[in-house]
Amino acid sequence: MTDRYDPQAIEQKWQSVWRERDAFHVPNPVGDGDGDTTKTYVLEMLPYPSGELHMGHVRNYMLGEVVAHYRRRHGFQVLRPMGFDSFGLPSENAAIREGGHPRDVTERNITSIRAQMQRLGWAIDWDRVLATHEPEYYRWTQWLFLKFFEHGHVYRKQVPVKWCPNDQTVLANEQVIDGHCERCGALVESKSLEQWLFRITAYADALLDEMDTLEWWPDRVLTMQRNWIGRSEGAEVVFRVDGDEIDIPVFTTRPDTLFGATFFVLAPEHPLVPRLVAGTTHERDVMDYVRVAAAHSSVERETKEKDGVFTGRFVVNPADGARIPIWVADYVLMEYGTGAIMAVPAHDERDYEFASRFDLPVRTVVVPAADEGAADEGVFAAHTADEKLVNSAQFSGLSSPDAKRAIVEWLETRQAGRAAIGFRLRDWLLSRQRYWGCPIPVIHCDDCGIVPVPEDELPVLLPDVEDYLPKGRSPLATAEDWVRVPCPRCGREGRRETDTMDTFVDSSWYFLRYCDVRNTDAPFERSLVDYWLPIDQYIGGVEHAILHLLYARFFVKALNDMGLVGFREPFARLFTQGMVYYRGAKMSKSRGNVVDPEPFIERFGADAVRLWCPFLGPVDQDAEWHEDGMEGMSRFLQRLWRAGLAAAEKPPSPDVDTPLARKAHQTIAKVTDDIGRRFVMNTPIAAVMELVNEITRTPDDEGARFAAETAVSLIQPYAPHIAEELWERLGHQELWSAPWPEANAALLERDTFELVVQVNGRVRDRIQVSTDLSEEELVARATGSPKVQTQLDGRNIRQTIVVPRKLVNIVVA
Q: Measured between alpha carbons, how far is 230 from 519 in angstroms, rounded to an integer?
């Protein structure tokens, strides 16, 4: 190795050293590991291998990189594994775009991404790697599915579903954003299909209540989850269909308005609709409306002009026995409440719009408590903070809170209602009518029903299907030899389930498998996951707040209840990074606006790329990609290289008290605080840059070697290759495991500062001066500087401007 800074040669050297020495491998504990406080689990969300890495990925993984190095050098055993979310729509759609088979395209991309990560020098334990499409992994995804099935957490039923016409598959509610597919952006449609669902609603209260333990989660993520779960207190009121023995429950948060219900509305997807109109003169009109309404997205249905169709049927209002008409209207959504509402047009704006269009009655039943006049009939009256009931039989005159309780108690005695808690959250729909996913391990038998595949027959391998393109039904149905199997229970012919699992099932437990990735007898050993988890620092995008993060929390709670893990929350501390934008849009493979790091690595070296991505701006905020500063990072590394080599020629001087030594200790304090306490990742780079600049300006300071060693040590989490090389040249070994530097508190007390001296606004000198100098003394020091004297050259000083503890500007004629 020459004295010239050659990033390519240095990076190859140290990457080889790290591999040979297993620098970032961490062993599992011997025994139960109880009470071990020297371990930490740092993890970024695993990537989709639907293409290669881009600069947005680099910025994200740099956060885990810095934290992992920082904690390792604080004496922790750091678990930082890597995996690939390789099943599901992203990978299959990538294969469709390329015209290849999903397995071939996915595995080629995994090989490429892994090479890119290693080229960047990520501090990853490569002995703990998984890909969710590998049978060694999805065997245990299937095993867990069967455990959920056994405990009643997963079931199958006919449900109205969100259907993406582009991806030709069902979507979970959480994957529909503003009425469009979260993956491809297509307008989502509605269908009714037999589907598999996780009973996540059974954990709605736990998901809400146990948020109180997540003190290190961003408030906005917790708020998003609370709003999505949408817990509200109210009542379930039962309306009976007139002339029939059909009860239809509704959930309402305002049981005090029950006497104001003048009509009843069902969602178009409500399963009772066909039964109510069967054989009536209204059947054709209603079913035609249902087919048209179901094709519209939720957003369209809630925001467009209200419309609907009368069914010709009535329900009985349990409050007063009145017959009120049943309508079908698309402003009522099956995924909210029970898919049925009691319409109170006087006090609900949507109901009022509908009533106005179809000339339905409007009855006022609550008024402001201070209102002594008669209630206005036939008009909409928004709710107020303090209300009392009118036109409500024996409940008139009660305040709304008192009336709510009294009416619910009255309904309970009549078996017409009960107090209830309602949730916006719906069960997680996991069926996908696509090829590239984890097969669902059940067999359908005409005699036995749904039969789980025996555990000793797992995994149910995904068959090779050449024509895997979406068809509106699962392509697996065409693999007849695979589909037809004996029923494990009776031996007669059965049929395999041909839907595959949502890719979010794979990613709801992968972090557990990392702890025991080579286990062939179980998905993981409990003692190991209990040792490593909860994850000490989890990093990923806020877009997963109500997808992956919510699903993973549900999975862990269910596994805890089954006795498979000993904790309730998977992620103790969460950081959601900002997005990287390019050309006005989020950098994304699906948008085609990605920036490949490889050309920049070739030109500037991996360390420059690693530095520039977090330096773009605060990492919790969005950043626009530009490469203007990459050259500057390269120049900084050149300055660091020269400073390190120059320091290697000087004798050690760790205990000196000089301006440069003080600057070094101040930098240690700042970088340590920014990374360790504040989780700020761009300012530490700037602080080390300032220190290197000071070393360059004052090379004769006795603290120059100490300052250079400090700069090298502090920059190591960001630029480990050059740091290791300089550390070795400074006479040390293995910086990746060396203790993190500690600031000397005594030298942090600033009794001097750097006085900037300007002449006519241009910097001419910098002087270390005492903090207790008066303004007159500061001016005297400034004008007495030899560098300033050459600029004055006998000219008259017209004015001096003093900025305390910062600068003196000398204005001359």
A: 39
